[in-house]
Protein 1
Amino acid sequence: MRIIHRIDPNGVPSQRSHGDIDRAHGNGLVAAGLRHAYQRLTVLDLDAFTVAPGDRHAVIGPNGAGKSTLLNLLAGTTRTQAGRITYNGQIITRRSAAWRARAGIGRTFQHPTVYPDLTCLDCVRMGGWHHRHHPEYTPKQVLDLVGLADHADRPAASLSHGHRRMLDLAVALAGQPRILLLDEPAAGLTETETDRLLDVLTGLSSWIALVLVEHDMSVVAALANWITVLHHGHRYADGPANQVRADPAVAALYLGTTGGDDAERQ
Amino acid sequence: MSTAPTSRSHRTMLSRGRQWVPPAVTVAALIVVVASPDAYLQASISRMAPFTVLAVSVAVVTGHAGLPTLGQVAPYAVGAYTTARLALAGITAAPVHLAAGALAGAVVAGVLGAALVRYRGTVFLMLSLAVAELSATSAAGWQAVTGGTDGLAGIPAPSLAPVTPALVDDRAVLLYAATVTTATTVAAILLLHGPRRLLLLGARGNEDRARASGHPVNRYLWLVHTGAGAVAGIGGALLIHTHRWITPADVGFTTAAIVLLAVVIGGATSLPGAVAGAVAVLTVRDVVALSAPGHAPLLLGVLFVAAVYVLPGGLAALPARIRHLPRPRWLTRAPDGSSVAEPVARSMS
C-alpha cells in the first residue's frame, strides 16, 4: 500500500529517491502527515518521513525543532494526534510502544534510562526478554560489546552518566531491533566514550536502520548517510549527508542566523 | 591461609541458617499455641488468619506492583460472601469454598484492575479508596445476598471433605487456618520469584524503558492485581471459616486502612513481612489495647509512626538491620582468626 504524501507548504519536499521510499514501504518505517501539538503550539508538522532498511538517517535541528517528538511518535512513546505510521507495510499508528518494540523498533532515550533496582546484567536481560530463547547475543556479550562487562553485577543506579548511556544502548540492542531510534546518544559523553559509541554503532549489521537525533555534528558525520534538518517542526533541509552538511543555510541555522533563510537556500 | 575458605563457607552456612530463623520461630510459636489448653488463645490466633492473607494480597499489589491499594477489600468481600452463600446453601466443603473464593476474588479484581492499573500513585490510591467504600456500601445495600447491615450469621462450619467432621474445634480450626495461610503465602512468594520478580522490579523501576523493550507494563500489573484478588478471595473464604459470620463492617474502609497499615509496618516488598505486620497490628489492636480500652486507634498510630521512623523497611528489614549493627569489639576477629582484643589485652599485661 502506497501512502500519498501531503506536501508541507512550510517545509522543503522530501528528497528521498523512489527506490528508498519503496524499500521503506516494503520493510521499513513510513510516517505520513505527522502533526503534533502541545495545546496550541504545533511542534511537529511533517508530510513524510521514511526509514528504509540499513538507513543511517540523522535528524538534526536547533532546540525545539521537534526532533525528540518525531522519535517519540515513531517509537509509540507519544500517542499520534494526526498522521499515519506504517512498518513493514502494516499500519501501526495505534500500536503501543511495547508492541512496536517487540516488532523490531528499538530506542534509546535522551536522558539515559535504566532500571534502578536491577544489576546491569539484569537490565540487559529485560531488554532481550522477548528473544531470550533465541538470542543473537547473550546478555554478557551485549554488555561486553558496549564495554560494561566489568560492571555486569553492579546496580544500574550506581553507574556514571556515560556508562548509563551505554547501558541504555545495550538494553536497546538486546531487543534485536530492525530499526534503532537513538535520541542524542552522544550527549554528555567524554571523547573516549563517544569513540566507543561510534565503534559500536558503526559495527552494527548493515540491515539495521538507525535514526539518529544528535547535536554533535562529528557524530552525525561519522554515522549518517542521510540527514533531515527540522526547524520549528518543519523539514528545513533533506538530502545526502555530505550535501546537507555543506549547505550554508543549514550552517546558518545552527549559528542562529536564520533570518532570510529561504533566500540563503536559493 | 587455609582458614579463609573454611571461614567463608562457615559464614555462608550461618547466613543460610539465619534465614530459617523467622519461619522456625513462627512454627515453634504455632506448636506452642496448638499444644496449649487455652481454646480462647487458639481461636484468637486463627481469627488473625484471614486478615493476614488479605495483608499478603495487599503487599503483592503495593510492594510488587508498586500500586498502593485500599481496594483489595472488594475481592476479599466477594470471596467471603460467596463462601457464606455456598455454606448456607449446604455446600460445606472447604476446598470448594477456597476455590470459589479465589475465583470470585480474581474475577472482581480483574474487572476492577482493567480500569485501575492505568493509574499510578495517589490517583490509584484514591480510586482504590472509592472501591473500598463501594464494596462496603454494596455489601450493606444488597440485602438479599449479603443480609444488609445485619450481615450473615449462623453459617455452618466447613469440612475438609464430605466424609470428615466439620471444623468446629478451635485447635482444628487453628491448624486449618495456619495451613491455608502458609500455603497461600508460600504460593504467592513462589509465583513472584525468579523471572517474574525481575519483570516486576524492572517495570516498576522504569516503565518507559520497559515499554521500549517490548514489555506490556499495564498487562503485567493487571495480572498481578488479578492474582492478588484471588489471594484476597481466599482470605475472604477463610474469614467465614474462622468467624462463621460476616457484616459489611468486616470488609469496609477500616479493614482496608488497617491492612495497608499492617503492610507498611511489615515491609511492603516482603510477603512474610506482611504476615508479621498483620499479626503485629492485630496483636496491638486486639490484645495490647485490652489494657487501655478505647485507645486502640492511638496505639495503632504510635505503632505506625514508630515503624516508619525506626524501621523504614518495615519488620522485614529487621533481621538485616540487626546483622548490620556494629559488633562489640571483643567479638570482632582478625583475618587469622584471633580476636583483635587479644593484642590489646597482651599490651595491657
Protein 2
Amino acid sequence: MDIDYTQEERQFQQQVRGFLDENLPRGNEMWSKRDAWFKSLQAQGGWDVPKWPAEFGGPGWTPVQHYIWDRETAGRSLPPVLPFGQVMLAPILMRYGSKEQQERFLPDIRANKVNWCQGYSEPGAGSDLASLKTRAVLSEDGSKYVVNGTKIWTTMGHMAQWMFCLTRTSSEGPKQEGITFLLINMKTPGITVKPIFTLGGSHHVNQVFFDNVEVPVENRVGEEGKGWTYAKGLLQHERSGIAGISRTLTALSKLKKNARSVRVGDRTLLDDSSYKRKLAETEIELRALEFAELRSLADAQQTGEPGTASSILKLKGTELQQRVQELTIEAAGPYALNAGFKEAGPKFSKMGMMMYLNGRAATVYGGCSEVQKDVIAKRVLGIKD
Amino acid sequence: MDFKFTEEQQMLRDSIQKFVREHYPADRVGARRKAFRKAPGFAEENWQQFADLGWLGVPFPEELGGIGGDLADVMVVMEELGKGLVVEPYFPTVVLFGSALMLGGNADQQQSLVPQLIEGKLRGTLAYMEEQARYELADVATTATARDGKYLLNGTKSLVLNADSADYLVVSARTGGDRTAREGITLFLVPADAEGVKRVDYPTIDVLRASEVSFENVAVGEDAILGSVGEGLALLEAISQRAILALGAESVGMMEMLYRDTTDYTSQRVQFEKPLAAFQSVKHRIVDMFVQTELTRSLLYRATMEVQGEHEDAPLDVHGLKHMVGKAGRFVGQSAVQLHGGMGQTEELRVGHYFIRLAAIDAQFGDTDYHLGRYTELMPIPEGEPDADLLPF
C-alpha cells in the first residue's frame, strides 16, 4: 500500500495545474472565452471529454489521473458543461449505439453544440422506474415509432434539442423487458414542455408531454426491448458523478472562509466551538469518503469493477453535500432569509439558501437513498427480499 | 498510489484466520473468553505459536530478527485478531511496547530486548495513564527524581494493560515541569519486578487484563531512559498514533463481523412468516452498519498510509480515525445487539463480545469526543477572503 503519487502522477498533477493556470478563463471571461477554453482542452489530447475512452478521442486516463483532475478542478470555477450528453448518453452510444449513431451524435456532444435531456421518470414511475408507461408503437412499415405519454423531472428539458428516452414497446413478460431506448428530437411535432418550479422558485425541471410524436426507427439505440439493460449501465455513470466529493470538499473549504467572515460578538463564527465541531465532524466523514472513492477507483483499475466501497459513494456523498449546505445557512444566521439580494447580509448568504433548497433533490434523483439502501442490501450484502 | 494488499500480506491474513478458526471458533467464543478471566488472561502456548509463525516480528527490522513489515502489515494482523476476539497481548507487547522501543530506544536497548520479544520470551506494556489524566497524555503526576546517577520513580499508573504478564513497563514520569506541562516528561524502561513496583491486577470488562501499578522509590539507571530526557511527550504521542491505528484496525475487523453476523442472523430468523432481514427497517439498519464500516475502513487505510509515509495530514487523520472508530463502532455494535434481539443480550453469541470490546476501545487513547476536539484544533482553515460563489455544487 502506498498513499503517495508516483513520479508520473506528480508530473501529471503539475501539468494539470500549469494548464489550468494558463488557460482557465476567470470571472467575466467565463462566457466570452468559453470556446477558446474548450479548444485548449482539446489540444491537450481529449481533455475536453475526460471520461471518454481513447478510441473515441478521450485522454485514456488512469483512475488516479481522473482523481487528480477532479481534485485540481474542484477548487476552481470551470465553464459548465451539462452532463447529460457527454457523461450520461455518450457511454451508451459508444457501447450500444450503431456506427451511424456514433458518427451523427458524438461530435456535437463533444463540441457542446447540442443539449440533451434525460427522459426516464414518469408521474407513475419514480423509484420503480421499470413500471414506466410512455408508449412507443412501431408503425406498420417499420419506419418509425409513435410515442405517447409523459416524462417528468426532466432537467433542462426546456433548453434541450434532444432527449434520450425510455419507452414501453411491450407489456408482455417482466416489466424490465419491454423497454426501448429512443433518441427524440425535441422539435418534433406533438411535444409540449411545461415548467415545474421547485423549492425557492427555480426552473430547472419540466414535465414533457408526447402526443403522437413520430420518431424514426434509426433513432432507436440497440435492440427493441433492451433499453432497461442499457439504461442501468448509464445510471452507474450518473451515480458516480452525483457523489461529488471533490466539489463538497471545495464547498466546505469556502464555508470555512465564509464562517470566518461572520462576526459573533467580538469574535467570528469559526471561534464558536460547537459550530466548529460540526464542521470537523463533516470534514472527517468527507475525508473518509474521499478515500472510499480512491479505493473504488483502485478496484476499478485492477478488476474492471468498482468494488464494494463504490456502493456507498452516492448514498453518503449526497448526505454530506446536504450537510455542508445546512451548515452554510447556519453560518448565514438571520440572512438565511435572503432570497438572492446582494444588498442584505454577507455576500454568501445570497446563494446559501438557494443551494440548500435545491440540494434536497440530491438524495432523491439518480436513485433515492432508500432505493440505494435496497440495492446495497441485495447486491453487496446478499439480503433477499 | 497503490491500494493493493501484497501477496505476503494476504498470506499473513490467511495464517491468522487459520489460527482463529482452530483456537477461537465462533461457537465457543463466550466460553473461551470466560476461561481467560484469570491471570495471565491468555494461553502461553498460543503466544509461542505467534512467535513461531513470525507474527511477533511483523513491525521490527530484519537485523533485529523481525520481518521488516510496515504499518499496513500490523493493520492486517490487528484486523484479523479483532475478528477472532483474540486475547493474547499482541497490542500491549508488539504495538505499545514495541513502538516505544523502536521509536525511542537506542541501539543497545533495541538489541537487548527486541530479539527476545520476537522469540516470544519477553513481553512489555505501556504504563502511561493516571487517574486524574483522563485522555491527556501530558497529564503526568508520577515523578522521576535524579539522584546519584539514578532516577527514583514515585507515583501510580492506572489501567496498565497486561502488566501481570509483562517483563518490562515503559513508564512516563516527570523529570521536570508542572503536572500538565508539555515539557519535562521522560519515558523509562522499568523491569516489572523491580523493587518498589506494586501491582493490583484485575480483569477488564472486555475480558482482558489490566493493573494499577504503583512505584515507590523505584530506582533505575540512565540506561533506562527511552529517548531524550524531558521530551517524552512527543514519543508518547507517536506511540499513541500507532496505538490508534492498531485499535482502529481491530475495530474495523469487528465491525465487519458485526454486519456480517447480523445479516446472517436476521436472514435466518423468521418472525411474522418472513426473515427479519426482509423487513425494510431491519435491512436498512444493516446497510447503515455496512456504510459506517466502509467509511471507517477508508479512513483507517488513509491514516495508516499517512503515518507510514510521514505525511503532513497524518496527525489530522489519526484524530479523525479515532473519532470515527468511536462513533461508528458504537452505532454498529448497538445495532448488532439490537437486531439480534434477545440473543444479542447474551454472552453466547460473539456479537455481544464485539460490542463490549468496541466500547472498551472507545475508552482508550481518547474517545470519540476527545478526538473530535483535537481534530477541531488541527483542522486546516484556508487563507483568503470570503467566497460568495457557492457554485458549482
